[in-house]
Design a protein that fits this description.
Elements: E1 6-12, H1 21-42, E2 49-59, E3 63-73, H2 82-105, H3 112-128, H4 131-134, H5 142-155, E4 164-169, E5 172-176, H6 180-183, H7 187-190, E6 194-208, E7 217-221, E8 224-230, H8 233-240, E9 251-262, E10 268-282
Parallel strand pairs: 8-10
Antiparallel strand pairs: 1-3, 1-4, 2-3, 4-5, 6-7, 6-9, 7-8, 9-10
Helix pairs in contact: 1-2, 1-5, 2-3, 2-5
């Protein structure tokens, strides 16, 4: 049983490497991901709890951020018992570890069976942390398992192949491995979800193109960052052969598909952008005269 509510994320990186912002972006992503995971894990206990993350320490060498789970009950009478707080705190720490271990198993393939097995591992883990003995435990839904694994996976996407992210608490730590298979897997391929599709013409300023493969591009639109694959094979082929040149700060005009995935209760699980057709390119000097929708 874990008696500490402290945990950490550590990012080891290649010194003197380019694009240093990737390290700090990844740490921010991991903190945002752990909020999602904690909320999903706590949906399995019969208390209305607001998990609050507090910064405990930052160490140098590699970037290592210590944090603490503080449980705040909407009804303080629910978890005033310190033993219950201790049990739930241990459940959160080990639940995150279980999801990260399953993420490593998804390095080769993502299947419904993996999601089902992870769900069962969380149930078994809840029993070993005495959760079922003292607290009525409701198994976490499969779409939440998928969402949590996806959030952790997406968080470390900015890292290079020479970087390494870890999650740890007390004397335990575990590497967080990026799964390209999970990144390319949609919820509808694994679990039963409903979809809603919206198509609009948009102007997308290019932040990070894909010069070689079939990966997602990064764009800016309306002050926010989005990523998506370009499905216009003809335009993409010309760009990758150098027949179309886009200068830094340039943009494309495109037809964009926005796909949203919902669970059976109408809750948004995830979403994605797809660039269906590239209609033209915009030079950097003309961006100020461009409108966001046309």
């Amino acid at each position: 049983m874990n008696r500490s509510d402290k945990f950490y994320f550590q990012i080891s990186f290649e010194k003197n490497s380019e694009n240093p912002e990737r390290i700090f972006k990844t740490m921010q992503n991991l903190i945002e991901a752990i909020r999602i995971v904690n909320n999903d894990l706590l949906s399995s206990v019969p208390f209305k709890i607001d998990p609050v993350l507090t910064l405990s320490d930052v160490t140098s060498g590699s970037i290592k951020t210590w944090m603490r789970n503080q449980l705040k009950s909407i009804d303080e009478g629910d978890i005033r018992d310190l033993n219950i707080r201790r049990i739930i705190g241990g459940y959160l720490l080990q639940g995150v570890r279980t999801l990260i271990k399953s993420l490593e198993k998804g390095d080769k393939v993502i299947s419904r069976k993996l999601i089902e097995n992870t769900q069962q591992e969380l149930i078994d883990m809840a029993r070993t942390t005495e959760l079922n003995g003292q607290i009525i435990y409701k198994p976490i839904e499969q779409y939440k398992v998928f969402r949590d694994m996806s959030a952790l996976n997406k968080a470390i996407q900015p890292l290079s192949s020479n970087d390494l992210a870890k999650y740890g608490y007390e004397s335990e730590d575990i590497a967080i491995r990026y799964s390209e298979y999970l990144a390319e897997t949609e919820p509808i391929d694994i679990i039963g979800v409903e979809t809603k599709i919206i198509e609009n013409p948009m102007v997308l300023q290019i932040k990070k193109p894909d010069y070689l493969g079939n990966s997602k591009w990064e764009f800016r639109h309306g002050g926010r960052q989005i990523s998506g694959k370009i499905l216009d094979k003809q335009w993409l082929s010309k760009f990758q052969r150098g027949q179309i040149i886009i200068l830094p700060g340039g943009a494309i005009k495109a037809r964009v598909r926005f796909v949203m995935y919902f669970d059976s209760e109408g809750t948004l699980i995830s979403d994605k952008y797809e660039i269906i057709e590239v209609l033209g390119e915009i030079e950097p000097r003309k961006m100020l005269d461009s409108i966001k929708l046309f």
